[in-house]
C-alpha cells in the first residue's frame, strides 16, 4: 500500500549576501510567523546602518521603503511557495536583496469523492468507482476502506477499485476518501454493497438404475454443476444416509427385500461445503421373485423311521436348500448336500425315533436365497403298528420275533431267563501292547465276545397257533446270517449284532404251550444305542482348524466310531483332544474340493477307504497309504469327545474342508 505524508511549511533559509561593492544588505532575514494567507518576517539592519528597507514578493516591491525591521505580507495563497526579498537603502544606494523562500501551509482538505457507485460483484469480489476529488493544491491519491478498516491506497488517477477474497452473499460498507499533497484527508464517501450469493450445486442429473435384482439395486448419475468444484456426493436409500461426500458417481445397495419399492436420493457437495438444496430422487422396485416349486417327494416307511426322498425344486432366483417338517416342526434341513459318514447325500434323509402306529404330517420345503418357501405339500404318513403287544419289560426283538410280547397271532412269548445280555463279558488280556500305532490300542486287555441265551415259554391260543409259532421261531435267523437283537426297556433301546449258536430249541409243555431257547453270540461285546450320535467340523479357511464335540453315554471304556474327511485340504491332522492322540496325513497327501473324493476311517476295524468317483474307480479302495504311521489311531470315550481338524490349503482349490463323525452310545 502506498503511504502518504502530510506536507509542512519548509523552514526559512538565510542566504548569505554575496561579496559586493554595494551597500551592505540586511542581516538574518527570517520568518517570524506563518499562516495559510500571510507571513511575517524580520531582519537585522546592517552594521553601518540604513536609511530604509525594501520588501519584495516574487520580485515585486511591496510598498515604499520602510525603516522598521519587520513586515507582514498578507493576501497570500495557502500551500504556495513564495520568494521574499529584503534590501537596504543607504546614501550609497541600494544593497543586494537578501532572498527568503517561504511556503504557506495547506490546511484545506480535498473534496469528498463524488459519485461513489457499485460497478460489479462476484461471490468473492466487489468493484466500485467514483469521480475525482478536487483540492486547492493537488490530490495525490485515495484510500479504500472495508467495514471501517483501511485495505489499500491508490494513486490520484485511479478511480476504480476491486475488493477480493470476500465472503459470498455478504453485505459490506465501502468507504473512499481523498488525500492531498499536504496530507489533508477528505471525509469518506460511503456505499453499502453486497457480494453475489453462492448457489449450491445443482441436483446430480440423470440419476438412473443400472442394475436391479431381487435383493439389490445399483445406480449411477452424471456430474452436478456448480460455480465451485463439486467434491463429492451424499447418497441415501429409504431415508437412511449411506454415503457422505463420496467421489464416485455410482452406488449399490444389497440385502433388500424382493418386489419392494426403494427411494434413492443423491445430493452434490461442493468445495465450500454447500449441498444440493433438493436432491435427485429415483424410485426403484426390486424384482418380484416367485417361491420355489413344491418338491415332489416319496416316503418309505419303516418300523420306527421314514426315509424321505425328493426331486429337485426349481426357482427363478435359485434354490438354496431343503427342509423336512414333521408335524409342523423342522426335523432336518440341508443346503442341498448333506455330508455324512456314508458319503454326500442329495435330496434324501431318514427321520428316526417315530412311534409305531402313529400318523405323521410330513412336508418337504424348498427354500430360495430370499428365504421364500415352496407351497405346502404335506402328506399324512401312517406308521405301521408293532406286530406285537408288549406284556413285560424288557422286550427282546430278533427280526420279526419279540420276547415278552404277544404277537399278531395271539401267542404270548415270555422270557424267563436272558443270561449274557445284562452281564459283562470277561476281560481277555491283550497279547501285546501296540501303543496306538496300528491294530489294537494301548490297554490292559480286551473284552471277549458276548454269548446271550434267551429262554422262556410260549403260550398260544390254539394248537394250530402253537405249531405255527414253533415254525416261526425256528426260522427267525438263518445260521449263516447276522441279525440284530434289540432290547427295549423303560429307559432305552439297545442293540447288538448277533449270530445263531446251535439249534433253536422248542419243547412242548402242554397242548397250547412250549418251552423255547435261543443262543446267540455277539463278536463285539458292546451293546449299542439304536440311533447314532453325529457331529461335523467345518474349517472356514486354511491354514486353520475347527473342532466338533460328541457326547457319548454308556459304560464301555472304548467306543468305536466312523469318520469321513472331505477336502479341499492338504497335510491334515485329526486330534482327539481328550486323549491327545493325533491322526495325521502322510506328508503331501491331499483331498480335492470335489465331495466325491473323501477318506473314511472305521476306528473299530482300523480300516481306511479312499472314495473316488465311480468313473475313476468303481468301488472304494484302500486308503491306508494316505495316513501316517505314528501315532495313528484312537477310540472315543464315554462322555465328551472333542475332535479338531486342521491342515494346509490346497493350491488353486476353494472350499471348506469338513470332518464328519458318527458313533453309537455303547454299554457293557
Question: What would you note in describing this structure?
Answer:
By secondary structure, the chain is an all-beta fold. It folds into 6 domains: 27-103, Immunoglobulin-like (Sandwich); 117-194, Immunoglobulins (Immunoglobulin-like); 208-285, Immunoglobulins (Immunoglobulin-like), CATH 2.60.40.10; 297-382, Immunoglobulin-like (Sandwich), CATH 2.60.40.10; 388-528, Elongation Factor Tu (Ef-tu), domain 3 (Beta Barrel); 531-667, Sandwich (Jelly Rolls), CATH 2.60.120. Helix content is 2%, strand content 47%. The chain is built from 1 helix and 56 strands. Strands 32, 33, 34, 35, 36, 39, 40, 41, 42, 43, 44 and 56 form a 12-stranded antiparallel β-sheet that branches. InterPro entries: ECM_Regulatory_Proteins, FN3_dom, FN3_sf, Ig-like_fold. Keywords: Carbohydrate metabolism, Glycosidase, Hydrolase, Polysaccharide degradation, Repeat. This is Chitodextrinase. Residues 25-111, 112-198, 203-293, 294-386 form the Fibronectin type-III domain. Pfam families: fn3.
Amino acid at each position: 500500500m502506498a503511504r502518504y505524508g502530510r506536507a509542512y511549511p519548509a523552514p526559512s533559509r538565510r542566504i548569505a549576501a554575496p561579496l559586493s561593492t554595494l551597500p551592505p544588505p540586511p542581516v538574518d532575514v527570517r520568518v517570524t510567523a506563518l499562516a495559510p494567507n500571510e507571513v511575517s518576517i524580520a531582519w537585522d539592519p546592517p552594521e553601518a546602518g540604513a536609511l530604509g528597507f525594501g520588501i519584495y514578493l516574487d520580485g515585486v516591491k511591496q510598498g515604499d521603503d520602510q525603516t522598521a525591521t519587520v513586515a507582514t505580507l498578507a493576501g497570500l495563497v495557502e500551500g504556495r511557495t513564495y520568494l521574499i526579498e529584503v534590501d537596504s537603502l543607504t546614501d550609497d544606494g541600494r544593497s543586494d536583496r537578501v532572498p527568503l523562500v517561504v511556503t504557506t501551509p495547506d490546511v484545506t482538505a480535498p473534496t469528498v469523492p463524488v459519485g461513489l457507485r457499485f460497478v460489479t460483484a462476484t461471490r468473492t469480489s466487489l468493484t466500485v468507482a467514483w469521480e475525482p476529488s478536487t483540492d486547492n493544491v493537488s490530490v495525490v491519491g485515495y484510500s479504500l476502506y472495508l467495514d471501517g478498516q483501511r485495505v489499500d491506497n491508490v494513486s490520484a488517477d485511479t478511480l476504480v477499485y476491486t475488493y477480493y477474497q470476500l465472503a459470498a452473499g455478504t453485505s459490506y460498507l465501502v468507504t473512499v476518501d481523498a488525500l492531498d499533497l499536504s496530507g489533508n484527508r477528505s471525509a469518506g464517501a460511503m456505499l453499502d454493497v453486497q457480494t453475489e450469493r453462492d448457489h449450491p450445486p445443482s441436483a446430480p442429473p440423470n440419476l438412473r438404475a443400472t442394475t436391479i435384482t431381487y435383493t439389490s439395486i445399483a445406480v449411477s448419475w452424471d456430474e452436478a454443476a456448480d460455480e465451485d468444484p463439486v467434491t463429492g456426493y451424499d447418497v441415501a436409500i429409504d431415508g437412511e444416509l449411506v454415503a457422505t461426500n463420496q467421489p464416485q458417481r455410482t452406488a449399490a445397495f444389497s440385502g433388500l427385500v424382493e418386489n419392494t419399492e426403494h427411494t434413492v436420493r443423491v445430493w452434490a457437495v461442493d468445495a465450500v461445503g454447500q449441498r444440493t438444496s433438493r436432491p435427485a430422487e429415483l424410485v426403484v422396485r426390486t424384482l418380484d421373485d416367485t417361491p420355489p416349486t413344491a418338491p415332489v417327494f416319496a416316503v418309505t416307511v419303516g418300523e420306527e423311521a421314514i426315509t424321505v426322498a425328493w426331486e429337485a425344486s426349481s426357482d427363478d432366483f435359485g434354490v438354496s436348500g431343503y427342509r423336512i417338517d414333521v408335524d409342523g416342526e423342522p426335523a432336518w434341513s440341508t443346503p442341498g448336500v448333506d455330508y455324512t459318514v456314508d458319503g454326500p447325500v442329495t435330496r434324501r434323509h431318514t427321520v428316526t425315533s417315530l412311534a409305531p402306529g402313529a400318523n405323521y404330517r410330513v412336508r418337504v420345503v424348498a427354500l430360495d436365497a430370499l428365504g421364500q418357501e415352496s407351497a405346502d405339500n404335506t402328506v399324512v404318513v401312517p406308521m405301521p403298528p408293532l406286530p406285537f403287544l408288549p406284556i413285560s419289560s424288557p422286550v427282546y426283538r430278533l427280526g420279526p420275533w419279540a420276547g415278552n410280547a404277544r404277537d399278531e397271532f395271539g401267542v404270548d412269548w415270555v422270557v424267563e431267563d436272558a443270561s449274557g445280555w445284562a452281564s459283562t463279558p470277561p476281560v481277555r488280556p491283550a497279547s501285546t501292547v501296540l501303543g496306538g500305532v496300528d491294530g489294537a490300542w494301548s490297554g490292559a486287555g480286551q473284552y471277549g465276545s458276548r454269548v446271550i441265551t434267551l429262554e422262556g415259554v410260549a403260550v398260544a391260543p390254539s394248537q394250530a397257533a402253537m405249531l405255527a409259532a414253533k415254525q416261526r421261531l425256528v426260522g427267525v435267523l438263518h445260521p449263516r446270517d447276522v441279525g440284530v437283537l434289540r432290547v427295549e426297556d423303560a429307559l432305552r433301546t439297545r442293540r447288538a449284532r448277533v449270530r445263531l449258536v446251535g439249534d433253536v430249541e422248542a419243547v412242548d409243555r402242554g397242548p397250547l404251550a412250549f418251552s423255547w431257547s435261543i443262543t446267540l453270540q455277539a463278536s463285539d461285546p458292546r451293546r449299542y444305542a439304536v440311533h447314532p450320535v453325529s457331529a461335523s467340523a467345518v474349517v472356514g479357511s486354511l491354514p486353520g482348524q475347527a473342532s466338533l464335540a460328541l457326547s457319548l453315554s454308556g459304560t464301555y471304556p472304548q467306543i468305536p466310531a466312523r469318520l469321513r474327511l472331505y477336502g479341499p485340504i492338504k497335510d491334515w491332522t485329526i486330534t482327539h483332544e481328550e486323549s491327545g492322540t493325533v491322526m495325521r496325513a502322510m506328508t503331501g497327501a491331499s483331498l480335492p474340493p470335489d465331495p466325491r473324493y473323501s477318506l473314511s476311517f472305521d476306528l473299530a476295524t482300523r480300516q481306511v477307504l479312499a472314495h473316488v468317483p465311480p468313473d475313476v474307480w468303481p468301488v472304494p479302495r484302500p486308503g491306508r497309504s494316505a495316513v501316517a504311521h505314528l501315532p495313528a489311531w484312537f477310540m472315543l470315550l464315554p462322555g465328551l469327545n472333542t475332535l479338531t481338524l486342521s491342515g494346509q490349503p490346497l493350491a488353486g482349490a476353494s472350499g471348506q474342508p469338513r470332518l464328519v463323525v458318527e458313533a453309537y452310545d455303547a454299554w457293557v
